[in-house]
Amino acid sequence: MWGGRFSERPDAIMEEINVSIDVDRHLYAQDIAASKAHAAMLAAQGIITASDAKNIGKGLDTILSEIGKGAFDFKRALEDIHMNVESRLAELIGPAAGRLHTARSRNDQVATDFRLYVRDTIDEIDAALAQFQEALVARATEHAATVMPGFTHLQTAQPVTFGHHLLAYVEMAARDRGRFSDARKRLNESPLGAAALAGTSFPIDRAATATALGFERPMANSLDAVSDRDFVLETLSAAAITAVHLSRFAEELVVWTSPLVGLVRLSDKFTTGSSIMPQKRNPDAAELVRAKTGRVIGALTALLIVMKGLPLAYQKDMQEDKEGAMEAFVALSLAIRAMTGMVLDLVPDEARMKAAAGDGYATATDLADWLVRTLKMPFREAHHVTGRIVALAAKDGVALHELPLAAMQAVEPKITADALRALSVESSVKSRTSFGGTAPKNVLAQARAWTKRLEKQRK
Ligand code: ARG
Prior knowledge:
This protein is mainly alpha-helical. Helices cover 63% and strands 5% of the residues.
């Protein structure tokens, strides 16, 4: 394709380091769509004839179906997807194929293809995240009043509801979707027609190809169009944050399903056994979700490093933008689907959750709040009084609500039996009715609101 001034074949190692077809073959659909838009525009502008454009379009359709069927012979010697397609086009329609590359370059071509690819990926990830949210909301509705221990420092802190915990991830996923959608808006401009770097002398219509490919507008600067990859970086950043959210949830599943903790059980569908220890039920899927985060963060880091020293405009370094990003998107999409499956599969051990929620004097704050509310005690003093009562209970090895009233009154004489009622885990969560709090009725209201919102988005 570019051999005019060359007389020797590339060295085998040159070919090996230069070739990108193994990676950019995944861009075939986008590459063909962009070529079809370009050819139609060239004809509309009188740059090529209508009959050449028609043959080019037909030939490209044939190639699309050949590749789709697995009947296309990708040639490494042809380096990349662009030249593989063009060379096959020449076989199919003859010399007219050579007119397709008028007023464009592989530089604007690859930037266009990859923008289209990343845009498709964003749409897929968004749909997967919506399903993840739907699964979470369904389980949150079911468990709006299921009491579990809430943790800080992984120490039992205060009772919360399981539904509330699940809805926390719905909120995170919503922000993740917002980040992908922001990235999509910014990437949706067309580089096509920027040519190698400087634009072209042909009377092309960049707005027409932009519209044909679903872009909002052509990119305004040809140097920028061929030389930035911020759209990949931005999407990978959104992906990395999403992966971190999933990883934290996966880590919780690993902890919760440990027999030492036993708050949640995953079925045979999402666990594996051990080849040596018959009792084992390993949360492999959750562990792998946690681990795949590394690939996503790695891809973001790697591409930031590739880009950081590159002068304008196109540099071959940028060919390294695709492999890691594609792998990261595949890993993220799988991780989202695996988490969705586990959310639907998991069964909380409600009795154990409730017992654990009351362990470790988790309702101590409720006693302090009672002292403040009923006895009008300053919170700091109430905290101190409660601390002394907790110490008493700990010395006797009993839960807070099991401590005799007289023992509490020895610390604070004005405490009444009413205080004891505030100490159950149910009344603790029921009382947390502040906006965003864990009370079952808040959780139900939030879950209903999310159900409606997600339904509306589906339409
Ligand atoms: N395979 C190249 C890439 O992915 C396509 C652009 C090649 N351009 C060039 N001037 N060699 O970046």
